[in-house]
Amino acid sequence: DAGITQSPRHKVTETGTPVTLRCHQTENHRYMYWYRQDPGHGLRLIHYSYGVKDTDKGEVSDGYSVSRSKTEDFLLTLESATSSQTSVYFCAIRKTGGVDTEAFFGQGTRLTVV
Amino acid sequence: GDSVTQMEGPVTLSEEAFLTINCTYTATGYPSLFWYVQYPGEGLQLLLKATKADDKGSNKGFEATYRKETTSFHLEKGSVQVSDSAVYFCALSVGSNYQLIWGAGTKLIIKP
Q1: How far apart are alpha carbons B88 and A85 in whole angstroms?
Q2: Is B1 exposed, middle or buried (0-12, 13-18, 19+ CB in 10 A)?
Q3: What is the per-residue pLDDT across B39-72, written as a single tens digit (0 to 9) for each?
Q4: What is the tens place of the pLDDT at every residue in A62-108?
Q5: Does B46 sit within 8 Å of A99, measured CB to CB?
Q6: Are A107 and B43 an interchain contact pair (Cβ–Cβ within 8 Å)?
Q7: Nearest CB to B104 within list A40, A99, A101
Q8: C-alpha dist (Å) from residue A25 to A28, A92, B30
Q9: Residue A56: φ, ψ to 5°
Q10: Kind and range of the H or E element at B75?
Q11: In this complex, is the C-beta atom of B100 within 8 Å of any C-beta atom belonging to chain A?
Q12: DSSP category for residue B72
């Protein structure tokens, strides 16, 4: 257990509403990531962070923003949710950016946009 | 760019059968290679890894050898169990890139 908590675990929201997902870690790892998982696409990186207030875009960042004001928390916001953002969202952490450093994953958040 | 290609699933086997899930990669530099497993309703967890050519990663009866000459990292297990049913992801990490590059995942179904 790498001390990662995602909240909420399940959410149903309406199109056009803002949604924020939270990832909390207890081990002060520097690197944090948000992925979405969809059938046939595997894991796709949305945004990542390499320190407090240091974030960057991944391959599918459109429609998403992130914030990291504390080492332990990484927030993912859907500014105006769309049905195409229905997915399972995973947060991951890595201790360093070294090539041999493994990632630890949260349990996931299942988001449904209706 | 860097990429990972896995065999498409689902792969369906009988209990005690031999398992191979193919993974090949394209990378500049010298990547580390990983296999992750995702059980139903859970997040991904590391199964094994190898950090340089000819290294063999192993865990829970699974093995994979880092083959630089064929740019491959195939996952094998000699005798699968029903409890091995899951989705398996191959991934690589290379250079100063902070990211892990993921394959699409292979769903494994083991029948009793």
Answers
A1: 24
A2: exposed
A3: 988 889 999 999 999 999 999 999 999 999 999 9
A4: 999 999 999 999 999 999 999 999 999 999 998 876 777 888 999 99
A5: no
A6: yes
A7: A40
A8: 7, 9, 30
A9: -150, 160
A10: strand B75-77
A11: yes
A12: B
The Cα A77–Cα A14 span in angstroms is: 14
B12 touches chain A (CB under 8 A): no
- Per-residue tokens: B63: 């093995």
Q: Are B5 and B23 contacting, i.e. CB atoms less than 8 angstroms apart?
A: yes
Instruction: Note whether B93 contacts A42, CB cutoff 8 Å.
Output: no
Token digits of residue B71: 């740019």
- Distance between CA A49 and CA A29 in Å, rounded? 11
C-beta atoms of A100 and B46 within 8 A = no
Q: What angle do CA A44, A86, A67 make, to 5 degrees?
A: 60
> Can you tell me which residue has the tokens 């990832």?
A23
Amino acid (1-letter code) at residue A33: Y
